[in-house]
Amino acid sequence: LSPFLRLVSRSLSLGVRQYHVASVLCQRAKVAMSHFEPNEYIRYDLLEKNINIVRKRLNRPLTLSEKIVYGHLDDPANQEIERGKTYLRLRPDRVAMQDATAQMAMLQFISSGLPKVAVPSTIHCDHLIEAQVGGEKDLRRAKDINQEVYNFLATAGAKYGVGFWRPGSGIIHQIILENYAYPGVLLIGTDSHTPNGGGLGGICIGVGGADAVDVMAGIPWELKCPKVIGVKLTGSLSGWTSPKDVILKVAGILTVKGGTGAIVEYHGPGVDSISCTGMATICNMGAEIGATTSVFPYNHRMKKYLSKTGRADIASLADEFKDHLVPDPGCQYDQLIEINLNELKPHINGPFTPDLAHPVADVGAVAEKEGWPLDIRVGLIGSCTNSSYEDMGRSAAVAKQALAHGLKCKSQFTITPGSEQIRATIERDGYAQILREVGGIVLANACGPCIGQWDRKDIKKGEKNTIVTSYNRNFTGRNDANPETHAFVTSPEIVTALAIAGTLKFNPETDFLTGKDGKKFKLEAPDADELPRGEFDPGQDTYQHPPKDSSGQRVDVSPTSQRLQLLEPFDKWDGKDLEDLQILIKVKGKCTTDHISAAGPWLKFRGHLDNISNNLLIGAINIENGKANSVRNAVTQEFGPVPDTARYYKKHGIRWVVVGDENYGEGSSREHAALEPRHLGGRAIITKSFARIHETNLKKQGLLPLTFADPADYNKIHPVDKLTIQGLRDFAPGKPLTCIIKHPNGTQETILLNHTFNETQIEWFRAGSALNRMKELQQ
């Protein structure tokens, strides 16, 4: 300590104001990551040390993304670093899991044989609560029907040192923002919208459960060195334009795959006009452009949010290390987009894809031209993307104006608070009551309709209709399992205005409504506080601390359970090339993880691999007949459901392959979309391109995600062909594999298949899975 005291003394004697005692003490102070883990500290000193090592090596200015990512390198002095090329070995600060993915993650962790998690980790119960009639009743019902799963997660958390947020606590990403995210953190979460934490200046990345297991086991986590897309914001938000419009605009520019392999880094003077929770909204929906994650630089809006959520000590520490929490002047981006917020107009994206962007002023005319239903059946606000205090306040400001003129919503209207803290606070401050009075139903603090947990009664399946939401994703059938529901995503205040008007043809910036008295009026742009003027109301305590001594804790999984199933190891590679693979399905067009492993009613089987495998690829379109869930059995020549055909092949020892189109596996982080094909006998997935998380998940489970060296070769393969994949004995990074296409008429064609495997991932394949390889290393 004496050199430290000498430094303080020398600073005082020299009268150096900027290096005062408080600053020096703060840099050496121990500040906890969260209130729930008082003995786990923020390591800005280590971040700084690693950044300095890497900066000296690279000899150039660094982006913020690079500072945080490289600041968490396992070996910063020797790690090979090349954007878009090398694989980085990283040490994340913490892990977060939502209940639907935590089941499989914890089952894998149990299989590892390890006694405790190596980093702070949490489980959040938000996915298994179905929206039916309203918050309290829906929550009670969910606790009843999911009791077995909740008990498993609670006891597994207690046994292995994982914090447990009970059902009703809120959506994982809102809980993380309120309690766990902080500037400079590297956090991985088993949900694709984990990037929400970038709104608080962290690098927060969505992963599959097997990646989470690696980190919880204390193994360095591998990530391909991301490129960095810069988005420079100028001007300032005003009027009806909201933070949601920034990402809706970016999605229209980059499309659903334009961010693949990159971190989107927002910067520029326009950033300061956006609230912290608004920045989180933008980062959250960055998942829809395929980005690894998104991030904003630390600023006074984040400091304000940290202080309001009881973390002023973290804000003070971040102030001292601020140079490491913003990009270096002169840093270079791989791509640069500029958006003038003064010119940005309210947007609405959809239907059926989140990158089909329209200004709100134009969407009515476009809908008429395309034949989309103009009448809005339901407006839905909330979700992990837009459920902040500010979001609810702006929506209430719109609703209050309608009520003042005697109007209520023409459309059905639902509200999903993001957390128990948000619910309690908007109840106290009157927002919830205003939204009820305009016709809204307040749902449980959970994901609900955003992920298909919606017992919708107002339409029949197959009925063409339109809904508008403040959610992030609007794939076919995602919200209500109806492929004819045209879902549009926009800001909560625009959803509220459109629900009041009842039609897509309404533009609140220019159009008038007619009040109960027959007089016309125009809605004024909403204005609301970004944070409550008083303190947040925390509501009910819904957190379960893991006990200090868990030696007596039991975790039971019944062998007859239909919800949970202990995992059996996958078979190892037999050392041979893959001969005569049958094509299970050649997929036509978009194939998201919702198509591969549907959510909604299937969520109840997320802890039971065999049962949930009955939804394998039931939403994918078969190019042979243009139908979903209808493929030809190559042996019987009969058409049947995809899972049934896969089970037939497995029973008869027939190994199979899937052929896919562009950006295969976009959307959710759910690793079930990789576990299911592996469980039912699949060996490879061959596509034009993959979404990042899904490609990694496939590798983790011992499958071969391969891409056509020439995308046009997709057209050479027919569903009745057989494929042989050669070169596996010499499987090596960067070395293509050979595929022989065997046509029924006896002719053959040879094509090349690329891959992105590194040495570690090749070891996963040879061992049968990443988990198998972990066990081999332990032995």
TrEMBL record:
Origin superkingdom: Eukaryota
Aconitase A/isopropylmalate dehydratase small subunit swivel domain segment(s): 582-710
Broad enzyme group: lyase
Compositionally skewed regions (Polar residues) per UniProt: 550-560
Pfam families: Aconitase, Aconitase_C
Pathway: Carbohydrate metabolism; tricarboxylic acid cycle; isocitrate from oxaloacetate: step 2/2
UniProt keyword annotations, A-Z: 4Fe-4S, Iron, Iron-sulfur, Lyase, Metal-binding, Mitochondrion, Transit peptide, Tricarboxylic acid cycle
Ranges annotated as biased composition (Basic and acidic residues): 523-536
GO biological process terms held by the UniProt record: tricarboxylic acid cycle
Cofactor(s) annotated in UniProt: [4Fe-4S] cluster
Cellular localization per UniProt: Mitochondrion
GO CC terms in record: cytosol; mitochondrion
Cofactor: how bound: Binds 1 [4Fe-4S] cluster per subunit.
InterPro entries: Acnase/IPM_dHydase_lsu_aba_1/3, Acoase/IPM_deHydtase_lsu_aba, Aconitase/3IPM_dehydase_swvl, Aconitase/IPM_isomerase, Aconitase_4Fe-4S_BS, Aconitase_4Fe-4S_dom, Aconitase_dom2, Aconitase_mito-like
Reaction it catalyzes: citrate = D-threo-isocitrate
Family: Belongs to the aconitase/IPM isomerase family.
Stated role: Catalyzes the isomerization of citrate to isocitrate via cis-aconitate.
Name used for this protein in its record: Aconitate hydratase, mitochondrial
Species assigned in the record: Cavia porcellus (Guinea pig)
